[in-house]
Amino acid sequence: MLPDSRTQPDADAAPGSGPAAEAVVRLEHVAKSFGNNHVLRDFSLLVQPGQNVVVLGKSGSGKSVLVKCIIGLLRPDAGRITVLGHDVASLPHDALDQLRARLGFLFQSNALYDSMTVRENLLFPLRRQWMAHGRSEEETLVQQALDDVGLGDTADKMPAELSGGMRKRIALARTLILRPEIILYDEPTTGLDPVTGREIDHLIRDVQQKYNTAALIISHDMDCVRLTADRVALLAEGRCYAEGTYEQLQQHPDPRVNEFFI
Amino acid sequence: MSLSDSPILAETGAMTRFAGRFLREGLRPRYELPEFLRQCYVIGYQSLPLVGITGFIMGLVLTLQSHPTMAQFGAESWIPTMVSLTIIREMGPIITALIFAGKIGSSIGAELGSMRVTEQIDAMEVSGTNPFKYLVVTRVLATTLMLPLLTILADALALYASYLGINTKGVTTLALFTNNVLSGLTFGDVLPAVLKTFFFGFAIGLIGCYKGYHANKGTEGVGQAANTAVVVSSLVIFLLDLLAVQITGLLGLI
Q1: pLDDT exceeds 80 at position B24
Q2: What is the mean pLDDT of residues A187-200?
Q3: Do A125 and B119 touch (CB under 8 A)?
Q4: Do A221 and A250 sit in the same domain of this protein?
Q5: Which residues are within 8 A (CB) of A123 and not within 5 positions of it... i.e. 6 or more apart?
Q6: Which of B119, B124, B126 minimises the CB distance to A109?
Q7: Per the CB < 8 Å rule, is A128 touching B118?
Q8: Residue A128 is nearest to which of B114, B120, B129, comparing CB atoms?
């Protein structure tokens, strides 16, 4: 049965979500405004372990705001965000840093440190989290992360020397090096050509299968949604407007949902 | 518009809070020692050539410009004392601080501004690093400690250039020149001049970091951050210098 597109899904019983206690990311009635611009009004969603959930929405619908609230870069005005059992808003700074070490975040702009080489970009989070012991272990982890994204020979290059797709892969390698339990992808294929975009989509799937990570993917690229999503949540009017598998939403009678699939 | 709506007051308040945060974050571990030392190298060592050349030219020009007038009054022997007092009390600290604000203040504003608009600061935060501590505290500490050292170097080079300048018009031994310089200087000339450069350095670092850290509006914001960092720093240097003169006067050191 298709989910009701007009009813706000209850966080405890979101369609296809399974038992709420197992959720690695749990959003309950989240609201966020900037002045009079009410970006998120009442958004609820669950992400289960090992599951890829895509949040689909038009540009400016609040997708990036949502993901920044989850990682703690923005504080929601109302509602509750629980990640790996921790209420993000109530965590002190040090505990939030520890939680963030268990998460990965792939920025839309990649956010590579442009004054550092690729190797230094990957070493930065590793050294900050004391994750490696000795230079040889560091080097092994860097090489493994680069091999995971198929760019094993770029360690000594500067980000400016890489193409858009390569920069995206390096950003993903930097995310993977800490072995995150959840990865948040903010528009992972935006600005890439269709072929490179598809390569990134497959990479997202490969990462999920290899490391069994859960992922919340923000996108409006339907190829990305189709190739990466186990579940899709449509963000509209500041709330979870509809939720289901790609195929379920594709056959949805509501034109507001259907327009994404035309 | 009421006084509380003034953008200048709002900016001053925000910058004061930023300075307060610097003090809070700077005192708490974790201490970013390797990054602080790297910043000392970038900010201090890499500014040596510019500051050195500026100091040298400052001393030479001041000597050559003052020579004809002093000679007219038969007071050529007073040139070392006059130049040293001028350089050490005022010209050295002010010129070095302005050069430093132009080079380092703008560079910090642009670097942090660029990191802000390309989300690199956010990336640092989500990787479990406190970007304020890593980027701001280290840079402000480095500018605060490096500017006094650079000023002392610029003063020394300016005095050496003055010695060379005097020798283009006559003959003076280095020993006599040094003796003249030291006999004209007191503790009250040197200490306030060095102390105020700590405050100049702190202001330059803090303003550069504040402007860069709060940059917005994309690449335009980066340019604005670099530009306003230099403009505001230069203005604050003069204001602090005025304050330093008043305090020195009150303490009877002038």
Answers
A1: yes
A2: 86
A3: no
A4: yes
A5: A138, A142
A6: B119
A7: no
A8: B129
Please state the separation of Cα A197 from the chain's center in Å.
16
CA distance A69 to chain B (A): 12
Residue A7 belongs to a domain: no
d(CA B62, CA B218): 44
Work out whether the CA dihedral A168, A169, A174, A179 comes out positive or negative.
positive
Q: How far is B143 from chain A (nearest CA, A)?
A: 20
Number of structural domains (chain A) is: 2
More confidently predicted of B83 and A132 = B83
Q: Are B106 and B229 in contact (CB under 8 A)?
A: yes
Domain check: are A252 and A201 in the same one?
yes
CA distance B57 to B68: 18
- Please report the residues numbered 11 through 70 in chain A whose beta carbons come closer than 8 angstroms to any beta carbon of chain B: 68
Interface check for B128 against chain A (CB to CB < 8 A): the answer is yes
Identify whether residues A81 and A35 lie together within a single domain. yes
Nearest-by-CA chain B residue for A130: B128
Say if residues A15 and A27 touch (Cβ distance below 8 Å): no
DSSP-assigned states of every residue in B24-61: HHHHSSPP-HHHHHHHHHHHTGGGHHHHHHHHHHHHHH
Shared-domain flag, residues A142 and A94? no
Residue pLDDT, tens place only, A72-109: 889 999 999 999 999 998 988 888 888 888 899 999 88
Q: Searching chain A, which residue's CA lies closest to the CA of residue B128?
A: A97
Contacts of B124 in chain A (CB under 8 A): 113, 124
Give me the CATH number covering residue A94: 3.40.50.300
Torsion from C-alpha of A106, A112, A117, A121, nearest 10 degrees: -50
Q: Is residue A9 part of a domain?
A: no
Would you call A128 and B122 a contact, using CB atoms and an 8 Å cutoff?
Answer: no
pLDDT higher than 70, residue A129: yes
Domain coverage including residue A84:
14-102+184-262
- Whether residue A56 sits in one domain with residue A31: yes
ipTM of this complex prediction, to 2 decimal places: 0.80
Q: Residue B109 and residue B95: Cα distance in Å, rounded?
A: 20
- Partner residue facing B128 (CB), from A101, A109, A115: A101
* Same domain assignment for residues A219 and A234: yes
Q: In this structure, is the dihedral angle defined by the CA atoms of residues B84, B85, B91 and B92, taken in order, positive or negative?
A: positive
Contact B126 A100 (CB under 8 A): yes
Cα–Cα distance measured from residue B88 to residue B93, given in angstroms and rounded to the nearest whole number: 7
The domain segmentation of chain B, as residue ranges, is: 3-250
Same domain, A65 and A125: no
DSSP one-letter code for A237: T
Shortest CA distance to A55 belongs to which of A216, A192, A238? A216
Instruction: Based on the fold, state whether residues A131 and A65 are members of the same structural domain.
Output: no
Q: Is A8 a member of any domain?
A: no
pLDDT value for B212: 94
